[in-house]
Design a protein that fits this description.
Length: about 575
């Protein structure tokens, strides 16, 4: 991987904005594009290079904008196209590039194409989607959608059904139709011509279908089979992804990050290798550890050793191939602090520790809004407080499995996507300083303790720590090793320790283009008690430490929830 071609995005730090919850400038309770413009200086100070904005296209918002009714229009809730153009220009002035969400597996049932398809399923637009006749008065096949219930929705007044892998209001687009594909490519290039740096590409693995839609072995009491099983048994998505890349992204040297689940064994080089389908894909290896067999209600608690093993194996695999995108949370996941830290570590020290590990792994670091101040899962009093379509379905599933109201509330509160969608906590004021109106979703009650305003005043805050961490990663002295350095696990036999080296040997001395050999140790103690570890290499410099009780001398002392980043020298004397 050392000799791989270098790309402009390899050393960038990305920040995801969920616009509806980021910052509201007009008091309607919904975040907007002008709110993002207003906070660009904040993002610049944090050290952000790329901003990924969740969908701002026109939409009925059945699935929070991931159901697009007009790919060329900005939803009025968020502002205007003029606002968007201003955002691009103002971001560029600050050295920040914009990445948009690209949702092209499906569109909204309100999209003009689908409305025309419903009016004439046999016509041109009917073939932009998947219409099939029912079988013996039932759906064409027994697939369960990602949001529960059948993947097939009957078309009133006919014997036909249309296919949707997600909500019934999100009909899947027929990627076997070259005319439909070309319409999408034209749209993508239109946005790239505007000056976008690239896209985060939603649910893209689903675009390849076995168009026969064969029945599958049921995996639940409803007699249906999860659609992911069909995806896993379908091959050939790579041809479609290459066609997409050649007709769009490749022409612009665009940055692309794929949301890819259900990849087949051995396919990673095709996705993110030297000439892969995408620049990068998200590393979900740790997130998969807390998924239940049948739903959130039987989701296991996180096991530290399993988490460490998943991250280490993923890092070792990918470094010979390309770069993954490292996350602890996003708009589809609960807050990382609440998910990956034990209760005793859900504090400032633990939050800094988790952030250090995530940001200094090999790969592209992605932060989600509020992560840099340590936002946590919300306290939910009742199911009626949830907005998320997936959480509502999981609550129904949990109740159906026999859980009481309180039990179902507890398990869904832990995993709900709405945990990431509560308003960004700008201050301790009412509504977290997010809006002067009534917020579309309640603010987390802990905004009085965890907010940007108070942390900006506190030099020891999580926010200031994240600024230092990002600055370290991007510094002239260390960015080479943190970007291209090899990953090697350390202290794997120690309970509660997540540690690794990032190292780069001396290279390119003759040409003057290389870097002096560096070896950095990142060591974190996820336990409650202080530990002492032998040092394999002499410590030349402490680059960052989250607690005063941490110490690196002849041995390494880490307090409970302590993390240190050390520049190492020669082998230590035995």
């Amino acid at each position: 991987m050392e000799t791989a071609k270098r790309k402009w995005w390899h050393d960038k730090v990305v920040y995801q904005i969920y616009p509806k919850s980021f910052y509201d400038t007009n008091g309607d309770g919904i975040g907007d594009l002008r709110g993002i413009i207003a906070k660009l200086d904040y993002l610049k100070e944090l050290g952000i290079d790329l901003v990924w904005i969740s969908p701002v296209y026109k939409s009925p918002f059945v699935d929070q904008g991931y159901d697009i009714s007009d790919y060329y229009g900005i939803a009025p809730e968020f502002g205007t196209m003029e606002d968007f153009d201003e955002l691009l220009a103002e971001a560029k002035k600050r050295g920040i590039s914009i990445v948009m969400d690209l949702v092209i597996n499906h569109c909204s049932d309100q999209h003009e194409w689908f409305q025309k398809a419903l009016a004439d399923p046999e016509g041109k637009y009917g073939d932009y989607f998947y219409f099939r006749e029912g079988k013996d008065g039932k759906a064409p096949s027994n697939y369960r959608s990602y949001f529960g219930g059948s993947c097939w929705e009957p078309v009133p007044g006919t014997d036909k059904y249309y296919f949707h892998a997600f909500a019934k209001e999100q009909p899947d687009l027929n990627w076997e139709n070259p005319q439909m594909r070309q319409e999408l490519y034209d749209m993508i290039n239109w946005w790239l011509d505007k000056g976008l740096a690239g896209f985060r590409i939603d649910a893209i693995i689903n675009i390849k279908k076995n168009v026969e839609f064969p029945e599958l072995e049921p995996d639940g009491p409803d007699g249906l089979a999860g659609y992911h099983l069909a995806v896993e048994q379908t091959s050939g998505v790579g041809e479609l992804l290459e066609d997409l890349k050649h007709n769009t992204f490749e022409k612009y040297d665009a940055f692309t990050v794929g949301e890819v689940f259900n990849m087949h064994d051995g396919e990673l080089p095709e996705f993110i290798g030297e000439d892969g389908h995408f620049s990068t894909i998200f590393d979900f290896s740790a997130h998969c550890l807390t998924e239940g067999e049948r739903g959130w209600y039987d989701a296991p608690e996180l096991d530290f050793k399993a988490w460490r093993k998943a991250l280490v194996e993923s890092q070792l695999e990918v470094q010979e191939i390309g770069f993954k995108a490292n996350i602890i949370e996003n708009h589809d996941e609960p807050r990382g602090v609440s998910r990956f830290l034990p209760e005793y570590a859900r504090n400032e020290a633990g939050t800094k520790m988790l952030g250090t590990v995530s940001l200094l792994l090999r790969g592209i670091p992605f932060l989600y809004q509020g992560q840099e101040i340590g936002m946590q899962n919300c306290v939910w009093e009742s199911p009626e407080e949830w907005d998320d379509i997936s959480t509502k379905d999981q609550y129904k599933t949990a109740r159906g499995a026999g859980l009481s109201r309180d039990e179902a509330l507890r398990v869904c509160a832990r995993m709900s996507r709405d945990n990431a969608r509560t308003p960004m906590q700008w201050s301790g004021d009412s509504n977290a300083g997010f809006t002067t109106g009534t917020p579309w979703m309640k603010a987390n009650p802990n905004c009085s303790e965890i907010n940007v305003e108070s942390q900006q005043r506190d030099a020891g805050s999580v926010l200031h720590y994240y600024q230092k961490l990002i600055a370290l990663r991007k510094s002239e002295e260390y960015k080479e090793v943190f970007t291209y350095g090899q990953f090697a696990p350390a202290y794997g036999e120690q309970d509660h320790v997540m540690a690794f080296y990032r190292s780069m040997e001396s290279s390119g001395a003759a040409s003057g283009e290389g870097t002096a050999g560096k070896r950095i140790l990142v060591a974190a103690n996820f336990g409650q008690d202080s530990i002492e570890l032998p040092l394999e290499y002499q410590v030349e410099k402490v680059l960052i430490s989250n607690l005063p009780k941490n110490h690196a001398g002849e041995r390494l002392t880490l307090a409970g929830c302590g993390v240190m980043v050390l520049e190492c020298g020669e082998k230590a004397a035995v």
